[in-house]
Amino acid sequence: MADTNLYNVAFILSEVVMESRLTELEIRFTEQEAAIESLSDTVHRQEQELEMMRLMVEQLKERIKSLANTPLAAQSEEAPPPHY
User: Fold this and answer.
1) pTM, to two decimals
2) How far is CA 19 from the centre of its chain?
3) How far, in Å, CA of 35 to CA of 23, rounded?
């Protein structure tokens, strides 16, 4: 009878330990899911920002090209201001 009671106590403790481990794993899984979702959102936002920056660089390139074609004299070729 004592062996049966000891076995029952060990079995109950084993179940408690397993339940505790399962709960801990579920908590860790939930935290990792949240972290992955947060990282995914960050990557998506950064992709959008990067695309916006690419467009801005292209616009700036075009603007520089258009300014390079303007008929302005180099600074060394320009006459000094009248107050000199």
Assistant:
1) 0.58
2) 35
3) 18
